[in-house]
Design goal:
It is a single chain. The chain is of the alpha/beta class and 184 residues long. The chain is 36% helix and 26% strand. It is built from five helices and six strands; from the N terminus they run αααββαββββα. It has helices at 4-24, 26-29, 34-50, 82-92, 168-181; strands at residues 56-60, 68-72, 96-100, 111-122, 131-143, 148-155. A six-stranded mixed sheet has the order 1-6-5-4-2-3, with helices on one face. The chain is globular.
Length: 184
């Protein structure tokens, strides 16, 4: 038989957890298909552990810290969310950026970022609709006179077909870090 102290602890835990569990939503806590919920959680865990992106083929030449870059828009890259993901990662590193059409010459842009990104289409797990995903990307930082400061790339590491479904931003984050710091 449980002691009074143990019963008080159990009641306290139940009183503290019950509102939290109910706030999550009934379908998550009280699912009619608990095995399906377990499979979804296991899939998310596998996606997060196997889908780690990393920068490859990094070249970094020492240079002054960069606080502003001009991004040359690449019409041949069809990854729709590449520029927003790239700018979000630059912003997270306190680097301001603006996007310009190719061939624009500006005296106010001492550092240019040029990129190439590739995509493919496939069926995500548990889906019957095709979705695009980024398969590879390369970022090059250059001075306005063409000197290369840094370059780095990303390629999908297709562990069990899971890594390709991570977001463009999570794929490009280590590449941005590599061109800014030189560390892969």
């Amino acid at each position: 038989m449980a002691s009074r102290h143990t019963l008080r602890i159990r009641r306290g835990l139940l009183a503290g957890l019950l509102p939290s569990l109910l706030a999550i939503g009934g379908c998550t806590v009280f699912s009619s298909a608990p095995l399906w919920e377990v499979a979804k959680v296991a899939g998310m865990a596998a996606s997060n552990s196997l889908g780690q992106s990393k920068a490859i083929n990094t070249i970094y030449l020492p240079h002054e810290p960069i606080r502003h870059v001009c991004i040359e828009f690449n019409r041949d890259s069809q990854v729709a969310d590449f520029i927003p993901a790239l700018q979000a990662e630059l912003n997270a590193r306190a680097v301001q950026s603006r996007v310009y059409e190719p061939g624009v010459v500006l005296d106010t842009c001492p550092v240019w970022l040029r990129y190439q990104a590739y995509m493919q289409w496939a069926l995500p797990p548990l889906s019957d609709k095709y979705k695009s995903y980024m398969t590879a990307a390369t970022i090059i930082l250059q001075s306005d006179d063409g000197r290369i400061y840094a370059s780095s790339s990303y390629e999908t590491n297709d562990n069990f077909g899971v890594a390709k479904w991570t977001s463009t931003r999570s794929k490009i984050a280590p590449v941005v870090a590599a061109v800014m710091t030189g560390i892969e």
